[in-house]
Amino acid sequence: MKAPRSKLPALLIALSISASLSFAAQGAATIYPEVGRAQADVAAALTDATKTKRRVIIDFGGNWCTDCIVLDRYFHISENAALLDKHYVLVHVNVGDKGITDNFAIAKSCGIPLENGVPALALLDPNGRVVFAQKHGEFEAMRKMDPASVNEFLRKWAK
Description:
Blueprint: H1 8-27, H2 38-52, E1 55-61, H3 66-75, H4 78-87, E2 88-94, H5 104-109, E3 120-124, E4 130-133, H6 147-157
Parallel strand pairs: 1-2
Antiparallel strand pairs: 1-3, 3-4
């Protein structure tokens, strides 16, 4: 009589494939709007920030960027989302549909060197003055970081 084969390896492979497909599907989600909306979206965020006395976080990135997707997920973890809602207006600026090809003028006005990679964050006061700009690709490897790094950033710059 043959010993029954374990179904565990097949189950683990199926779960791994399922998780990979789920990540890919979530990665295909649209976080960053059309490239051409950037100026209007930033202006709307500043208007909202003025009314609510919050700061504006401009998140430069792209829907193709895994680290950008991870950053957005970390923004929406409950403790980070609470800080974000209370102290900030978040606006996503798409830097291009297949790489960093667009919205250089907005990035430059915020002090963001896009050549250092994305995601990159700029923090503005309600009057549009830059309070902080990531200049060294601090969140470029977000997939290797944990949600606490986003929480630390949000706490540090909350007013």
